[in-house]
């Protein structure tokens, strides 16, 4: 366009982008969706903690049985403590004998105390927290358990 012998260019003032309201709405939607997922993640964290407790207890149990077999059918608490420290890196075990066959081992996972109970003549063990809640094995009966009762 020519004005007074000079060319004048019009610059279009159209900015492309999002308004502040649009950004706030999108952030609100994301926050609402995230609030639905947070309880799920907390549930997964609880399951992972329980799995860690059971796995540590299982490793201690296997270490105890290995120590039992290496010592000709005798439990040597000192060797068990040394073996668990060497193989598992756990040095805060407390081993208690209940009679000749029953053993209780107290151990900590993430600074929380747990109790491992087993009988040296059986191939099974039990893990409880200090409140007496059984963590392993679960109290859920399988089809074969129901058939035996």
Automatic annotation (TrEMBL):
UniProt GO cellular component terms: membrane
Pfam families, per the entry: N_methyl
Keyword Transport: no
Principal location: membrane
Source organism, top-level taxon: Bacteria
NCBIfam families in alphabetical order: IV_pilin_GFxxxE
Alphabetized PANTHER family for the sequence: GENERAL SECRETION PATHWAY PROTEIN G (PTHR30093), TYPE II SECRETION SYSTEM CORE PROTEIN G (PTHR30093:SF44)
Membrane topology field: Single-pass membrane protein
Coiled-coil annotated residue ranges, if any: none
Annotated keywords: Membrane, Methylation, Transmembrane, Transmembrane helix
Organism for this UniProt entry: Clostridium novyi B str. ATCC 27606
Location in or out of the cell: Membrane
Protein's name according to its UniProt entry: N-terminal cleavage protein
Secretion signal, residue range per the UniProt entry: none
The UniProt record lists the keyword Transmembrane: yes
Transmembrane segments: 20-38
